[in-house]
Design goal:
By secondary structure, the protein is of the alpha/beta class. It is built from nine helices and ten strands. Bound molecules: adenosine-5'-triphosphate and magnesium ion.
Length: 250
C-alpha cells in the first residue's frame, strides 16, 4: 500500500483482510476464521449473523482488538490494529472503539450518569455537554440519571450501556448480542436507539445477533458460516434475513 493510500480519509471505519484465527494446537485445533475479507462503512449499521460456532464473536473480538488474529490485517480507520503492541491497543480501544455486550457490564456502585461518563473520566477527556445532552435524549434516560443499575430495568440498563458507548464518539461501536438478555419490547427500544444514533449522530455500529428481527434494524447484514463470509444483504427485512439463514443452514 502506498503512503497516499494509508493517509486518505477511509470511507470504511473498519477493514479486515484475509483474517484467520486458529484456536488450540494439533488435534485440538479449531479454525474459527478462515480468511475473512470484510469492510464496514463509516456511518452505517451492520449486523453479523451466522449459525452458533460460525465465528461471529471471534470476528468481532479480532476486529475490536480484544483478541489477536492468527494472520491477516485489521484497520480501524487509518490505523492498522494488527501491528500494535498491547499498550497501543489499549489506547486505541479507549479512544476509537465503543463496546456493548449482552451482559450490560455497568458498575453497580455508580449511578447511570456516572456510568455513562466513565469512559471520559478514564481518558481524562472533557465531557462535551451538547453531546451528553443529545445522547441522553436519544436513549431517553433523562429521568433515570441518578439511579443505580439495580434500580433500573434490563432495557434501561442496556440503554445506559449504549449511552456509555456513544459518549466518547468512538470511530466504531461493536455490539455482541446487545439484546440477548432483553424481552422483545426492551430489545426493540435498544435497537431503535442504536438505529437513531447511526442516523442522527453518524455513529458506525457493527452488531452480532442471532435474531432476524434485530438484524433487520441494520443497513446491511453479513453472514458467516464455518469461519467464512458466505453472503450479505442490504436493506434487510426480517423475512429476507430468515430466507438467507435458511439457505445457509441447508
Ligand atoms: N477460546 C477458545 N478456544 C478454543 N476454541 C474456541 C475459543 N473460542 C471460540 N472457539 C471456537 O471457535 C469457533 C467459533 O466460535 P465463536 O464464539 O466465534 O462462534 P459464534 O458464531 O460467536 O457462536 P455463538 O453464536 O454460539 O455465540 C467455535 O467452534 C468455538 O468452539
Ligand atoms: Mg458468539
Amino acid at each position: 500500500m502506498t503512503l497516499t493510500d494509508t493517509r486518505r480519509q477511509a470511507p470504511e471505519a473498519v477493514v479486515a483482510r484475509a483474517l484467520t484465527k486458529v484456536y488450540g494446537q494439533g488435534d485440538a485445533q479449531v479454525h474459527a476464521l478462515r480468511g475473512v475479507d470484510v469492510a464496514f462503512a463509516t456511518g452505517a449499521f451492520t449486523a453479523i449473523m451466522g449459525p452458533s460456532g460460525s465465528g461471529k464473536s471471534t470476528l468481532m473480538h479480532c476486529l475490536a482488538g480484544l483478541d489477536t488474529a492468527t494472520s491477516g490485517t485489521v484497520h480501524i480507520g487509518d490505523v492498522e490494529l494488527t501491528g500494535l503492541n498491547d499498550k497501543q491497543l489499549t489506547l486505541l480501544r479507549r479512544e476509537r472503539i465503543g463496546f456493548i455486550f449482552q451482559a450490560f457490564n455497568l458498575l453497580p456502585t455508580l449511578t447511570a450518569e456516572q456510568n455513562i461518563r466513565l469512559p471520559l473520566e478514564i481518558a481524562a477527556r472533557q465531557p462535551d455537554r451538547l453531546l451528553f445532552d443529545r445522547v441522553i435524549e436519544t436513549v431517553g434516560l433523562r429521568d433515570r440519571l441518578a439511579h443505580k443499575p439495580t434500580e433500573l430495568s434490563g432495557g434501561q440498563q442496556q440503554r445506559v450501556a449504549v449511552a456509555r458507548a456513544l459518549i466518547s464518539k468512538p470511530q466504531v461501536i461493536f455490539a455482541d448480542e446487545p439484546t440477548g438478555n432483553l424481552d422483545s419490547r426492551s430489545g426493540a427500544e435498544v435497537l431503535s436507539f442504536l438505529r437513531t444514533s447511526v442516523r442522527e449522530l453518524g455513529q458506525t455500529i457493527v452488531m452480532v445477533t442471532h435474531d432476524p428481527v434485530a438484524a433487520a434494524y441494520a443497513d446491511r447484514v453479513v453472514f458467516l458460516r464455518d469461519g467464512e463470509l458466505v453472503s450479505e444483504i442490504s436493506a434487510p427485512s426480517p423475512q429476507s434475513v430468515l430466507d438467507t439463514l435458511m439457505k445457509l443452514e441447508a
